[in-house]
Design goal:
mainly alpha, 52% helix
């Protein structure tokens, strides 16, 4: 059958909502930008950069809430 990367499809559909209606999306991940690109491709990484703000924590930070 055809392969489908479910997370990539969700992110791309959320990007379409962001562009059309400014709907916000909140995502948490422990992947780096290069790992995101390897897993989901350059198109998804580009869309994520356009619609998300990156909040980074130092590894020694005890509580990241």
């Amino acid at each position: 059958g055809n392969e489908c990367n479910v997370m990539a499809e969700i992110i791309l559909s959320r990007y379409d909502l962001f562009v059309a209606k400014k709907v916000q999306t909140h995502i948490t991940t422990n992947l780096s930008a290069s790992e995101i690109e390897n897993a989901y491709g350059n198109r998804v990484r580009s869309r994520m950069r356009a619609m998300l703000n990156l909040i980074s924590f130092d590894k020694s930070t005890p509580d990241k809430r």
